[in-house]
Design the sequence.
């Protein structure tokens, strides 16, 4: 079943008109379940995420998220409405990622009737912008059913260019300790100021060797983000801390990165989160070949931003691609052009057919 152009545009507009800030996806989830059911597609609902399956064989998963961030300041149009101006549809989530959702739904409906020896999965998930629980729950469900993942496409606004690698995220907390004292007497008492110690540690981290660069992703980066020190303006803090945001590339193991940070500072280093590993798909992947067949002019690149691709089991090829532009994400008055949406639906449908026709799509490849 192929959605007509006007049906696809109407679906996108309907999705944009349903508020779905992360954690509040129940309404959009129910709408899509009913939309698919009316077209003969039965969905499993897991929380506020949907899973639909068609065919038999190794699994190709099409995944995108239903949630949005809250509206940024500066909107000139109502963020929780679908506003059409010429060939543009404005509204919160129009670009990130409801265009991908609409395009993936259209591609699934078009190809589910003839999957050619693969299982085609459609995952429309909650909380990608916050906890990532939606895709995690879907992956756990698929594993429990013994479905072997052969590849996954993550619908995000890339201009239909192909992200073939993605940086991971390692969060560390750096804590420095000192001696609490009245600010007027600290120098005379020889009290160690934890804020000053933390500052020395942060300077020491500047330029730290975090391993060799990756050909697509560049180098691992380390940036202090949230800093905390002190309880009163006239008291020297006994403790100061900084959250360290590391965007990591394949290469050094997490333990080695943590060891290098610890070796450069005097404070204590605690791992806050290391669950988002870097991902890469080899140039010889059947999935990448199918994507190139669907979009021969597409650029391949490495993505510095996170997506649910980070949750994919190691060794399973994935790509990130979809209609819209990444630079419009999380901005006021985000929009998608009609032709971007139509091209996205066509891209996904051709990719599915090309992947199903490839020899041995079930073979896992080193990621």
Sequence:
């Amino acid at each position: 079943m192929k959605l007509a152009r006007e049906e696809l545009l109407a679906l996108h507009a309907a999705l944009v008109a349903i508020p779905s800030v992360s954690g509040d996806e129940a309404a959009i989830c129910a709408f899509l379940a009913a939309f698919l059911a009316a077209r003969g597609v039965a969905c499993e609902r897991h929380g506020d995420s949907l899973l639909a399956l068609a065919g038999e064989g190794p699994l190709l998963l099409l995944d995108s998220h239903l949630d949005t961030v809250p509206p940024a300041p500066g909107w000139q149009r109502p963020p929780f409405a679908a506003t059409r101006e010429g060939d543009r549809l404005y509204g919160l989530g129009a670009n990130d990622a409801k265009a991908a959702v609409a395009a993936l739904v259209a591609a699934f409906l078009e190809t589910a009737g003839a999957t050619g020896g693969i299982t085609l999965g459609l995952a429309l998930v909650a909380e990608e912008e916050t906890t990532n629980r939606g895709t995690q729950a879907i992956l756990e469900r698929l594993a429990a059913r013994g479905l072997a993942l052969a590849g996954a496409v993550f619908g995000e606004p890339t201009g239909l260019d192909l992200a073939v690698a993605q940086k991971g995220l390692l969060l560390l907390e750096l804590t420095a300790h000192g001696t609490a004292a009245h600010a007027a007497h600290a120098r005379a008492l020889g009290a160690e100021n934890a804020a000053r110690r933390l500052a020395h540690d942060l300077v020491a981290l500047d330029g730290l060797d975090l391993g060799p660069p990756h050909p697509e992703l560049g180098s691992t980066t380390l940036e202090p983000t949230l800093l905390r020190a002190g309880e009163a303006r006239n008291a020297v803090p006994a403790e100061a801390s900084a959250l360290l945001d590391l965007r990591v590339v394949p290469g050094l193991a997490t333990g080695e990165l943590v060891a290098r940070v610890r070796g450069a500072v005097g404070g204590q280093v605690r791992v806050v989160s290391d669950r988002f590993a870097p991902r890469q798909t080899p140039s010889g992947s059947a999935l990448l070949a199918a994507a190139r067949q669907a979009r021969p002019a597409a650029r391949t690149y490495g993505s510095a931003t996170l997506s649910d691709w980070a949750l994919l089991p190691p060794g399973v090829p994935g790509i990130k691609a979809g209609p819209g532009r990444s630079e419009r994400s999380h901005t006021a008055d985000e929009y998608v052009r009609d032709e971007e949406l139509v091209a996205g639906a066509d891209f996904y449908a051709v990719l599915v057919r090309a992947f199903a026709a490839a020899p041995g799509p079930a073979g896992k490849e080193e990621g």
The CA atoms of residues 314 and 367 lie 6 Å apart. Confidence is low (pLDDT under 50) at residues 362-367.
